[in-house]
């Protein structure tokens, strides 16, 4: 496997991008899960689909855009989607969750129109929906690396504010933190991570890499920092195992990565149950 | 002359055309332990939120430490403890230390990491609320009363001059409410922290407070608790309707 990675550029790209995503998706995912925004990640991934499909259609029909990397329009759609979700959430103050199905269905709706307008990119599309080991270009890798720099800088510089906002947003506002701006930046960064992760995990499964490792970590951790570290470890184990399996068995990496993360989750739940029953046994 | 810590001047506020507060004027001076009392829907929490700048009044203005609230920069001087049930996600994976250190976020400033002294400051704040042994515990494992003490520690860690509490004993066991108010009273007495709280625990809070404000859209009384008996029966009824009996004893045996 290592030999194959050293010989083929496409594998280097896929693994390097995978390792980066394995860090940033669960890292941001911790904040998404504790803020109960998991479904927003799903809505944004579907909006990204609309951007990708639109870009693939444009590159077919407009000659000068033939070489346009679909990731750019995907990122633009995802960021625009995050802004729209916030606008809708403030419009429907008492029904904030309504923003999610509205944006999600708008994403699929536009995606479906572009997909049916442009014939013959079913192979490409499959890769975007479920991820691909072979389709990650050097440019894709550079975009993912650029997104990672933005995410890590954002978390590093705003960690304490993000923590306070996640724990108790009313307190964050009352204590004078710029909660509105930090939340807005958080949504933009989330949109970037979703668009960046999509090449490896696929649009339909990208939110799971942000949530399942976190759900797994939360079963066994006490502190917020522990949750972050363990989520990243579970994320990386899922990505590496998933990519290797996908390469050897010629499967979509999105599927293998997510199934690995689900397997880890079940393992941790079982471990926790055994520990609890052992403790009870010891007390009895 | 020292400016009042909080100076509310002719504040009015409407929720979708329904008047919630009508021409409220009130001063909170250094060292006060003020309880804002009133029936449900009397605008108590709204008044606190206006003091905190969480909502803007439709009329009037508010000064904090002698400065117009709009230009007030030292927000860390005002600690806030919200109704626990409102804003806290009880399954949150965080230790007591992490939650309390969150109280230093504003004081530390944007783009800066928490200072090394944060650990010691958190320990001191926890000691002030009698929770020094809980530093490493997960906050979701604590009882309602313990969690509320943690939130007070979070407000105290930035060394505020005023602490504003909104129904702080919601979710606290009945047996622990007394001890909770004793702790607040000692913060007021020993650490000279000015306290403003909204509560329904009229019977319990009476012995500890210094000032009372009777609110029902407008201020019906504001002053030392000992002077409350000067309110006439008509004023009491205008303030609290017919169910005023339980709060009569606040002003001593006169009421």
UniProtKB/TrEMBL annotation, chain A:
One Pfam assignment: ABC-3
- Tell me what organism the protein belongs to: Planomicrobium stackebrandtii
What is the protein's membrane topology class? Multi-pass membrane protein
Q: Is DNA damage a UniProt keyword of this protein?
A: no
Q: Where in the cell is it found?
A: Cell membrane; Membrane
Per its record, how is this protein called by name?
A: Zinc transport system permease protein
**Major place of residence:** membrane
For this UniProt record, the keywords arranged alphabetically read as follows: Membrane, Transmembrane, Transmembrane helix, Transport
Family indicated by similarity: Belongs to the ABC-3 integral membrane protein family.
Automatic annotation (TrEMBL), chain B:
Molecular functions per Gene Ontology: ATP binding; hydrolase activity
Primary enzyme class: hydrolase
Say yes or no: keyword Transport present: yes
Q: Which UniProt keywords apply?
A: ATP-binding, Hydrolase, Nucleotide-binding, Transport
Supply the PROSITE patterns for this chain. Answer: ABC_TRANSPORTER_1, ABC_TRANSPORTER_2
The record's section on InterPro entries has: AAA+_ATPase, ABC_transporter-like_ATP-bd, ABC_transporter-like_CS, Metal_Ion_Import_ABC, P-loop_NTPase
Entry's EC annotation = 3.6.3.-
Q: Does the keyword Transcription apply?
A: no
Which superkingdom heads the taxonomic lineage of this protein's source?
Answer: Bacteria
Q: Give the ABC transporter domain ranges.
A: 6-241
Family, as annotated: Belongs to the ABC transporter superfamily.
What is the protein name given in its UniProt record? Zinc transport system ATP-binding protein
């Amino acid at each position: 496997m290592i030999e194959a990675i050293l010989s083929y550029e496409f594998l280097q790209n896929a693994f390097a991008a995978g390792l980066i995503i394995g860090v940033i998706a669960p890292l941001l995912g911790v904040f998404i899960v504790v803020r109960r925004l998991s479904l927003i990640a799903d809505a944004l991934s579907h909006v990204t689909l609309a951007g990708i499909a639109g870009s693939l259609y444009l590159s077919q029909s407009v000659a000068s855009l033939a070489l346009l990397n679909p990731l750019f329009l995907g990122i633009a759609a995802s960021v625009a989607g995050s802004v729209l979700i916030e606008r809708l959430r403030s419009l429907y103050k008492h029904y904030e969750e309504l923003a999610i199905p509205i944006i999600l269905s708008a994403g699929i709706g536009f995606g479906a129109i572009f997909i049916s307008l442009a014939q013959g990119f079913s192979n490409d599309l499959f890769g975007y929906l479920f991820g691909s080991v072979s389709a990650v270009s050097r440019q894709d890798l550079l975009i993912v690396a650029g997104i990672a720099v933005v995410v890590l800088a954002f978390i590093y510089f705003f960690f304490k504010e993000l923590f306070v906002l996640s724990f108790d947003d009313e307190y964050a506002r009352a204590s004078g933190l710029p909660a509105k701006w930090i939340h807005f930046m958080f949504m933009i960064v989330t949109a970037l991570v979703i668009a960046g992760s999509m090449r490896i995990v696929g649009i339909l499964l990208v939110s799971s890499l942000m949530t399942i490792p976190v759900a797994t970590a939360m079963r066994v951790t006490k502190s917020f920092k522990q949750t972050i570290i363990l989520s990243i470890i579970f994320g990386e184990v899922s990505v590496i195992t998933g990519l290797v399996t996908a390469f050897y068995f010629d499967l979509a990496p999105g599927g293998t990565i997510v199934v690995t993360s689900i397997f880890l989750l079940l393992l941790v739940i079982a471990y926790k149950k055994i520990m609890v029953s052992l403790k009870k046994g010891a007390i009895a | 002359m020292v400016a009042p810590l909080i100076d509310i001047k002719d504040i009015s506020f409407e929720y979708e055309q329904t008047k919630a507060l009508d021409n409220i004027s009130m001063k909170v001076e250094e060292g006060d332990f003020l309880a804002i009392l009133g029936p449900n829907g009397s605008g108590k929490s709204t008044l606190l939120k206006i003091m905190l700048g969480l909502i803007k009044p439709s009329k009037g203005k508010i000064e904090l430490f002698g400065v117009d609230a709009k230009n007030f920069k030292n927000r860390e001087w005002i600690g806030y403890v919200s109704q626990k049930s409102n804003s806290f996600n009880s399954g949150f994976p965080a230790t007591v230390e992490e939650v309390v250190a969150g109280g230093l976020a504003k004081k530390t400033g944007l783009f800066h990491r928490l200072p090394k002294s944060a650990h010691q400051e958190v320990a001191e704040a926890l000691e002030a609320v009698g929770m020094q042994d809980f530093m490493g515990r997960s906050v979701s494992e604590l009882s309602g009363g313990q969690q509320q003490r943690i939130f007070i520690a979070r407000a105290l860690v930035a060394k505020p001059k005023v602490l504003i509490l909104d129904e702080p004993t919601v979710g606290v066991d009945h047996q622990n409410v007394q001890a909770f108010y004793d702790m607040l009273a000692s913060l007021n007495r020993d650490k000279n922290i000015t306290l403003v709280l909204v509560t329904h625990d009229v019977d319990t809070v009476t012995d500890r407070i210094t000032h009372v404000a009777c609110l029902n859209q407008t201020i019906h009384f504001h002053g030392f608790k000992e002077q409350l008996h000067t309110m006439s029966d008509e004023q009491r009824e205008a303030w609290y309707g017919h169910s005023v009996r339980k709060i009569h004893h606040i002003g001593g045996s006169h009421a």
